């Protein structure tokens, strides 16, 4: 197997009460695992893809032939996006950005509260299944973007630094149609240390 799920930094129950244990377990062991399994199948069909990292696969996506291209877009994107999602969540998060990251946030959004408000508003309005992201662009500016389905910011030349999964499988067991409540709860788990590490080291 080429790609494997990253180990979670917490137990399934540790994200409660914000995200329930069954949702975390199902999301990780079923949804995320299926993306990983299907990605591996597609990559194994084309020898020239086997040596590439997941980031390289998603950057090269437009040049990959079908049918592997579609599988890597969906399952490779799903694998990578979920890696990002889990890695910035913590039951004991660093509650605020470091001073360096705060300077970059203030330069774009004016304040952390403004960033959160704009991010949550963008996430609430996303139609269908997809993601809202904080990303770093080529000039190290921070922006908020959304992607549909499992499309990945990497393919759009952005480096994601914070990922919010807005597929119903991420919240429906606990929140049903109340997506805004899930978004508000999710902020309690965002580890600003991990976000800062992505911003400064990737
Ligand atoms: Fe998901």
Describe the overall structure:
By secondary structure, the protein is mostly helical. The model has no long low-confidence stretch (mean pLDDT 96). The chain is globular and about 45 Å long. It has eight helices and three strands, in the order H-H-H-H-H-E-E-E-H-H-H. 48% of the residues lie in helices and 10% in strands. It has a three-stranded antiparallel sheet with strand order 2-1-3. A hairpin with a 5-residue loop joins strand 1 (130-136) and strand 2 (142-148). It has helices at 21-44, 54-59, 68-87, 99-109, 112-125, 172-175, 179-186, 192-201; strands spanning 130-136, 142-148, 159-165. It has two domains: 20-87, Helix Hairpins (Orthogonal Bundle); 99-201, Iron/manganese superoxide dismutase, C-terminal domain (minor pseudopilin epsh fold), CATH 3.55.40.20. The structure holds fe (ii) ion. Residues 27, 31, 82, 165, 167, 169-170 line the site of fe (ii) ion (FE2). Fe (ii) ion (FE2) is lined by residues 27, 31, 82, 165, 167, 169-170.
